[in-house]
Specification:
Shape: elongated
Structural class: mainly alpha
CATH class of the largest domain: Mainly Alpha
Radius of gyration: 37 Å
Oligomer: single chain
Largest sheet: none
Order of helices and strands: HHHHHHHHHHHHH
CATH topology of the largest domain: Serine Threonine Protein Phosphatase 5, Tetratricopeptide repeat
Number of helices: 13
Strand content: under 5%
Number of domains: 3
Length: 261
Amino acid sequence: MSIPGLLMRGCFDIRDIVAASLLWMAFAQAAFATGAEPAKDVKADPTPCFAAMSAADDDKIIGVCGELLDHDRLAKPDRIKALMARGGAFDRKDNIVRAIDDYDDALRLDPTLADIFNARGELWRRKGSRPKALADFGMAIKLNPDHATAKANYKSLALELERIGALMAVAGKPSFNCKTARRGVEKAICANPELADLDREINAVNIRVIGEARSPGDARALQREQNTFIARRNAEFGRPGYDMRKEMKERLQKLVGVDGY
């Protein structure tokens, strides 16, 4: 009970008054302290994060820069630097998803960072998302037409997509015309996309190997090997125990070895 309340009751114990007085003083001091000394608005200190960046310590970058990024009072330029640093650390640790997330956040804050567009494009490419990678490389070049790395990445990926498109156009098609196939072995190859692809690859590699032969004699010897393989394939097809897929894969591997790859 408060001191005025005790006095109004008319009967009181001196110990009650002392206790009430002490409690009253405590509340008053707390109220005064709260009003006179408001909590300080502490800004984030990026120094530990930048020190980890200078030391090229990826584990520390991920740790201390991550703590910095959790701070609400982090200045925008420092947040961008921390995101770029942590994204690079995740990239080097092959954590593609986390690296892309950090680069996404950095680009939302500053969409003019050509280097980050290029870096994110490389991550998309490693992830297998080629259209996204090509778009990022293109944006990096748009922002910085002299960006040599982005230009090289764009060119190589464009050629890769072109090759993929060409391969898709002939996927499942052998080296010969299935419409004119007469042999049972040829019809079987035409009916199986995997065997058709193997036949086309064997023929393509064989042509290249012969074309790169050191002498006409070597070229004739290589062609005889190919003719022997085809003759054996035609003769053995349909016999018990003959595995045409296995034989074709072995032939391709031998040709690839001859080709030096």
